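Ticket #333: bound-state structure for nicotinamide-adenine-dinucleotide.
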Amino acid sequence: MNISIIGGGAWGTTLAQVLSDNSHKVLIRDINEQFVEKINHKHLHPYFDLLVPTDIVATMDLEEAVNYSDVIVLCVPTKAMRTVLTEINPLLKTKKLFINVSKGIEPDSSKRVSEIVEEVIAKKYLRGYVCLSGPSHAEEVILRKATALVAASTNNKLAKEVQQIFANDNYLRIYTTDDVIGVETGGAIKNAIAIVSGAAAGMGLGENARAMLITRGVKEIVSIVVALGGKMETAYGLSGVGDLIVTASSMNSRNFQCGLRIGKGASIDEAIGSVVQSVEGIRAINAAYEIGKKYKLELPIINIAYEVVQGRCSAKDALTALLKRSLKDEKYW
Ligand SMILES: NC(=O)c1ccc[n+]([C@@H]2O[C@H](COP(=O)([O-])OP(=O)(O)OC[C@H]3O[C@@H](n4cnc5c(N)ncnc54)[C@H](O)[C@@H]3O)[C@@H](O)[C@H]2O)c1
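RESOLUTION: The complex was predicted; output attached.
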């Protein structure tokens, strides 16, 4: 099957290798000319400088990528998603299946990618939408290390179709679910807690503190997922807790690295600027804070992280504020 990938960065080019391993023909579209040349002429992954299969090709021409296949994989940072979809829409001539593999929430609107796709793509050209998410460092998948993801769609047949497209017996297992809200929300909000965990490490705190923040952070992720209409079990699954485990404790995570710098005293701009790839977690903190306010949720970690992001509180003062909260029972629900 021909498959188009929009966004050939760390994750997009890695998924191109998965699809090539599964005998699909892949065309990547990226706006970065150097990436496109590296893939086409040197057959190298643009970030990891590892050889990728020679049948993977790349282009800067969006129209060529859209016409190439009826399956479009979206892999640009969420902040660029609406612009990219708005450029894609007038180019559509046939029905397409949209598979979103990006994690995050749109800045300002706090919309999920499924909502943006529904708003922007003409219904007559939308065969369906599936979100593919879960604990997956591109650095490991590119080396074909064992990984599991979940494909979410309100249309079970489409989720199963995506399961078949991406699953690889040797290293990639795909589960399915109908809970798009749960998968998209968990995958976005866990980045907020990953930044907090990184900040704790940056402040020189130990693993006890990280375990505290991650465990209590899970409670906050679950509250947000459920408030937005997702399922609690999804938040505890691969796309929520699973992804938090890899993101909140690994130097491979740009969100963790960003938090690390905040914990060491960098400003938010400095912390974001020092990570080459996209950092979705700062936007996730803002979005989670707004959702908490709207639904009147108890989110002490998110709320204090928001104050840090706004520059109104240092990471050290944030920790003090959390520790000074009134003592209580360990109740989750
Ligand atoms: N890196 C990972 O391990 C990983 C794993 C799973 C999911 N994700 C998610 O995938 C998304 C992308 O992450 P990434 O790591 O590949 O980021 P990245 O910054 O490495 O790549 C994003 C790519 O999108 C391209 N791009 C930006 N605007 C574009 C546009 N308008 N049209 C076409 N291309 C455009 C950039 O040139 C870049 O190559 C994020 O939402 C991230 O959370 C990443």
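RESOLUTION NOTES: Residues 180-202 form the longest helix (23 residues).
TICKET STATUS: resolved
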